[in-house]
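Researcher: Following up on the earlier apo prediction. This time include the ligand. It's 3-isopropylmalic acid, with the SMILES given after the sequence.
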Amino acid sequence: MSKNVLVLPGDGIGPEIVEQAVRVLDLVNTQFNLGISHESALVGGSAYDETGSPLPEATLTKAKAADAILLGAVGGPKWDGLDMAVRPEKGLLGLRSNLELFANLRPAILYPQLADASSLKPEIVAGLDILIVRELTGGIYFGQPRGIRTLDNGERQGFNTYVYSESEIRRIARSAFEAARQRGKRVCSIDKSNVLEVTVLWKEIMEEVAKEYPDVELTHMLVDNAAMQLVRAPKQFDVMVTGNMFGDILSDAAAMLTGSIGMLPSASLNAEGRGMYEPCHGSAPDIAGQGIANPLATILSVAMMLRYSLDAKEAADAIEAAVSRVLDQGLRTADIASQDCQTVSTQAMGDAVLAAL
Amino acid sequence: MSKNVLVLPGDGIGPEIVEQAVRVLDLVNTQFNLGISHESALVGGSAYDETGSPLPEATLTKAKAADAILLGAVGGPKWDGLDMAVRPEKGLLGLRSNLELFANLRPAILYPQLADASSLKPEIVAGLDILIVRELTGGIYFGQPRGIRTLDNGERQGFNTYVYSESEIRRIARSAFEAARQRGKRVCSIDKSNVLEVTVLWKEIMEEVAKEYPDVELTHMLVDNAAMQLVRAPKQFDVMVTGNMFGDILSDAAAMLTGSIGMLPSASLNAEGRGMYEPCHGSAPDIAGQGIANPLATILSVAMMLRYSLDAKEAADAIEAAVSRVLDQGLRTADIASQDCQTVSTQAMGDAVLAAL
Ligand SMILES: CC(C)[C@H](C(=O)O)[C@@H](O)C(=O)O
Ligand SMILES: CC(C)[C@H](C(=O)O)[C@@H](O)C(=O)O
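Model: Understood. Below is the ligand-bound prediction.
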């Protein structure tokens, strides 16, 4: 049964890191006889430059037909001044919402080989393994009405709407509880229920869904406290579940705790388990084209893709083992460079993973 | 000229820590002949229990008449189940908005004596001195419409509105630039302008106001990146300015970086410089009544109050010097306890500051 992967290199360092990840995909495809084919398409700023749209119709059509999507990264200062409706990130947001990729899984794992890379003290982060489950197709990212209007007194006012319905909360809650069942069996739901009504409903539905999972413990935490606790004692968490905006902020903070955001993959899944896979980090325009970006988060995103969407667990395991071996060998890209290790290029890191496979 | 301070002990550890802070206020009042009088009033959950409202009319009237307000902390699980409109935090939000305390100044400072208390590595946080300027009377905290409605399909939907007008952004921008002028002359404005229209306007007005302050540098950062950078390299910041919700999250994260959130005061000022002063930490209901809470953030809030609202700079300096001396003596409350230091009670910490004055 042949499987089709859509590759979206995107902007900034996207093309460089995706190139290495595709080499890895091609190799395991042959080694494990997976019958995976792939094609590429444009998204983000590069799509805008070429077609006038950050999410061209052709890309969306291919994305809907694909069994899985591998994305590099999108956006950059070059497209910053554009009107909202055409800014490149709309490409990403458009993909997420059109494909209903509502469940964003963002692990924050401290690799033992990279323990020194964290800015936190070793005793605070050693063994860190959190999974952030972020709702990805709702909340204030997509809420209507939105825009900038002129008030009666002549001044302008910007407005966005933070909105969640019961069914949106229920399905992301189930994603979190299901994930927790495979891990430490604890879910911490993050809200701001002392101020925002939408998160009062959020908290209530979390409680309701928790009854379906008596083996999983549910706790609640206010978002400001969660930001503090991530810094103070991050190992207290197993699975954190939250909305789109809080999830954006907290997952980046959590990833950075590990000191190796260049190492962290992510999955964005729809109700059928089809998904888009991408590194947690952004398009890093400041280092684009220099060949120094870390391709490992994208390579590990390929592993997640094989495991969650392409039913190829063995190939996924092989990639993860290869990455671990490369770290054991002391190879590091600049972002995770360390004194006793060898700093290598994007390409050399890709070579090393291929060699380890 | 006599000055009137309204003292609002609030809930949880509020009364305990405020008690020590008032002793300090009384002493400097005598020592420096400041002519300050003070009275107390109810706010928060304790006000709700007694009067049915978290912000009784009598309290609000006194607050409006006062030259400055000293607040402990409000809220706690006891009042969690209450309807939004009467939940205790409404007392706090009501105070902020009725008094138009739009500029919330939250310093995140690493005390050299407490360098070990941070969960970050010493080289990352040594010398940390950030000021977060948070807009406090607008944004999604106060935006209308808000609530929980039932959709046509019968399910409920929670909604809040994130809104800022030009004039609201302009005045908080000026607060940030003014503050930066007294410090490192750098403002970093935090937004999510790649997704939220309201923050596109925010960014634009920041640029406009920056023209009035050619001696201050303005940069912009996306909120998710800001959360990462606070963990990765917090010393890159001087003044950070942001809206109510992002400010809530980032200021708590920043405060926690110092490992001594029990040490950090805050000021909430209106256009005339009148203000409310309170510790950055919350009501900590889990340790309330045990006599172990750290009163220093509240005592330092008294110092901020003397400096910003009561024109008593010398008394403020004296309090800050006394706190520093007490830390030098090795006295620590439980939250900042360390091996070679003596762990003392709330009351004993208050005694020590009085003795050092
Ligand atoms: C690029 C941006 C729109 C996006 C987001 O905010 O979701 C990114 O920060 C992310 O977290 O994937
Ligand atoms: C208690 C709560 C309403 C408040 C806020 O969110 O503003 C608190 O977290 C704070 O930061 O002062």
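Model: Chain B touches chain A through 64 residues (CB under 8 Å).
Researcher: Noted. I'll compare it with the apo version next.
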